[in-house]
Amino acid sequence: CLCVCVCLFLSPSHQPPSNAFVATFKARAVVVNVSSLLAVKALPGWSCYALAKAGRDQYIKVIAEEKVCRAVSYGPGPLDTAMQETVRTTLADPTGRETFATMHRENRLLSPLDSARKLAVLVHRNQFENGAHIDFFELPAP
């Protein structure tokens, strides 16, 4: 979302953007917030992370209400990343730690590339409710 602000308010000439630029931006731009299930579901041990994700989800809803442009929060699913490895080994909540460890052992973590493909299709089709939170598992295969 910071990039949107920079595009709109800090042109190289330090002049306000033209009406044509703003109209084109509103018509074509889609702001994507990479969110998380934790933005909408409370889990022990995740308070700070959930707070940040929920706050950004709400920001996307405000952008949608203000009709700045199209905006969506996308929950990419449980990705097989270094962050996920850290969670599996350090999460304070033993139940959550074991849940993620089991997902890893059973190969149920998602490829970041597969999740990105679903996101690309979502944005390209542009048929989502403006301001929605959409999770990987809510979308059909690309």
What coarse outline follows from CA principal-axis ratios?
elongated
- The quaternary state of the protein chains shown equals single chain
Instruction: Give the percentage of residues in beta strands.
Output: 5-15%
Count all strands and give the number: 3
- Name the poorly predicted regions: 1-11
Largest sheet: 3 strands, parallel
Q: Structural class from helices and strands?
A: mainly alpha
Cα Rg: 18 Å
Number of helices: 6
How confident is the prediction overall: mean pLDDT? 86
Q: Report the span from N to C terminus.
A: 26 Å
Instruction: Give the spatial strand order of the biggest sheet.
Output: 1-2-3
Which range best describes the helical content: under 10%, 10-25%, 25-40%, 40-55%, 55-70% or over 70%?
40-55%
Order of helices and strands: HHEHEHHHE
Identify the notable features of this structure and list them briefly.
51% helix; three-stranded parallel sheet; elongated; 142 residues; disordered N terminus; 6 helices; mainly alpha
Overall description:
- The chain has 142 residues and is mainly α.
- It has helices at 2-9, 19-28, 47-65, 82-90, 94-105, 112-125, and strands spanning 30-34, 70-75, 133-135.
- The protein contains 6 helices and 3 strands, in the order H-H-E-H-E-H-H-H-E.
- The protein starts with a helix and ends in a 7-residue tail after the last strand.
Question: Topology of this protein?
Answer:
Layout: H1 2-9, H2 19-28, E1 30-34, H3 47-65, E2 70-75, H4 82-90, H5 94-105, H6 112-125, E3 133-135
Parallel strand pairs: 1-2, 2-3
Helix pairs in contact: 4-5
